Amino acid sequence: MNANLKWFRSSYSDGEGECLEIAPTPTTLHLRDSKSPHRTLQLTPATWTAFLRALPAFPALPPLPARPEMLA
Hints:
Blueprint: E1 8-9, E2 20-24, E3 29-33, E4 36-43, H1 45-54
Antiparallel strand pairs: 1-2, 2-3, 3-4
């Protein structure tokens, strides 16, 4: 994994180590759990967008806004 990635923490983090972190690059979104930072998930921006658009189909989950500025 690239040691130069700039990780951002979710604004929904509780401050107790249960956080989703994301490191966007032009071609890949890197996701990790702050409790297990050595394990990451890599997605293309198109896959991430499709995931966010699919969330409203699950009524138990509130829709999350896409953050296009994270992809720049």
